[in-house]
Amino acid sequence: MSCKKVHGKLKKKLKHRPDFKSRETEFGDQETDEASHHLKLAMWDLGHCDPKKCSGRRLIRFGVVKPLPISSHFPGIVLSPQAQECVSYEDKDIVLKKGVAVIDCSWARLEETPFHKMKGGHLRLLPYLVAANPINYGKPCKLSCVEAFAATLLLVGFRSDAEGLLSRFKWGHAFLSVNSDLLERYEGAKTAAETLSVQQKWLEELEIDSMKSRDISYPSSSSSASSSDESDEDINPEKTSPIKDVN
């Protein structure tokens, strides 16, 4: 099942959205000694995004992420829409020894992004998760670079490293809280098949909640004319693109 139809349970999770007060502070950062300096993190930057809002560029400035030239090869995990496999705990040794790379491009310019030039030894997709960054808050799969890095580290068992990356952003904790229940399930999966099974079950639960939210009790024939004329607007399921690692 693709990433879509976020209603019911997800709406409840997003009810208490963080207060992003201004453009100057919403992407504010915090220094921390818990970052993943011992892991190799890298990024291809297509130059599509506002550098002031790009989480990936901030991580480069922190010295946590290494920029990669276009057409260069990365030996570790590469999060790419061209992948056929999902990130899972089975990738732990690859992440530990060879690292993780993301592709920083705009969601509005995917068709012109030369994904074929950004090659790696192990292409992967992330499973369903909800963004908590200020730009795409509450949107399924539209993760920022730091969220994509953190999600990968969480799935392979490096929670403290993931938390260290997220702690550099004032809104970073929101990614963990918004996805807390789902991340707990993913972290219990040991194989890619189990991870996809968790995703499938979660999406089915969201679909059930969505259907329940549309289960409207219509007025009976004995109701007044004013009541019977009332209608409830249908909810249009939100559709998203496959998971890519962008700002």
UniProtKB/TrEMBL annotation:
<dbReference type="Pfam" id="PF04068">
    <property type="entry name" value="Fer4_RLI"/>
</dbReference>
<feature type="compositionally biased region" description="Low complexity">
    <location>
        <begin position="216"/>
        <end position="228"/>
    </location>
</feature>
<feature type="region of interest" description="Disordered">
    <location>
        <begin position="1"/>
        <end position="31"/>
    </location>
</feature>
<dbReference type="GO" id="GO:0000455">
    <property type="term" value="P:enzyme-directed rRNA pseudouridine synthesis"/>
</dbReference>
<feature type="binding site">
    <location>
        <position position="126"/>
    </location>
    <ligand>
        <name>S-adenosyl-L-methionine</name>
    </ligand>
</feature>
<keyword id="KW-0808">Transferase</keyword>
<dbReference type="InterPro" id="IPR022968">
    <property type="entry name" value="Tsr3-like"/>
</dbReference>
<keyword id="KW-0690">Ribosome biogenesis</keyword>
<feature type="domain" description="RNase L inhibitor RLI-like possible metal-binding">
    <location>
        <begin position="40"/>
        <end position="68"/>
    </location>
</feature>
<keyword id="KW-0698">rRNA processing</keyword>
<feature type="domain" description="16S/18S rRNA aminocarboxypropyltransferase Tsr3 C-terminal">
    <location>
        <begin position="77"/>
        <end position="203"/>
    </location>
</feature>
<dbReference type="GO" id="GO:0030490">
    <property type="term" value="P:maturation of SSU-rRNA"/>
</dbReference>
<dbReference type="GO" id="GO:0106388">
    <property type="term" value="F:rRNA small subunit aminocarboxypropyltransferase activity"/>
</dbReference>
<feature type="compositionally biased region" description="Basic and acidic residues">
    <location>
        <begin position="17"/>
        <end position="26"/>
    </location>
</feature>
<protein>
    <recommendedName>
        <fullName>18S rRNA aminocarboxypropyltransferase</fullName>
        <ecNumber>2.5.1.157</ecNumber>
    </recommendedName>
</protein>
<feature type="compositionally biased region" description="Basic residues">
    <location>
        <begin position="1"/>
        <end position="16"/>
    </location>
</feature>
<comment type="similarity">
    <text>Belongs to the TDD superfamily. TSR3 family.</text>
</comment>
<dbReference type="Pfam" id="PF04034">
    <property type="entry name" value="Ribo_biogen_C"/>
</dbReference>
<keyword id="KW-0963">Cytoplasm</keyword>
<dbReference type="GO" id="GO:1904047">
    <property type="term" value="F:S-adenosyl-L-methionine binding"/>
</dbReference>
<feature type="region of interest" description="Disordered">
    <location>
        <begin position="213"/>
        <end position="247"/>
    </location>
</feature>
<feature type="binding site">
    <location>
        <position position="103"/>
    </location>
    <ligand>
        <name>S-adenosyl-L-methionine</name>
    </ligand>
</feature>
<dbReference type="InterPro" id="IPR007209">
    <property type="entry name" value="RNaseL-inhib-like_metal-bd_dom"/>
</dbReference>
<keyword id="KW-0949">S-adenosyl-L-methionine</keyword>
<comment type="function">
    <text>Aminocarboxypropyltransferase that catalyzes the aminocarboxypropyl transfer on pseudouridine in 18S rRNA. It constitutes the last step in biosynthesis of the hypermodified N1-methyl-N3-(3-amino-3-carboxypropyl) pseudouridine (m1acp3-Psi).</text>
</comment>
<feature type="binding site">
    <location>
        <position position="55"/>
    </location>
    <ligand>
        <name>S-adenosyl-L-methionine</name>
    </ligand>
</feature>
<dbReference type="InterPro" id="IPR007177">
    <property type="entry name" value="Tsr3_C"/>
</dbReference>
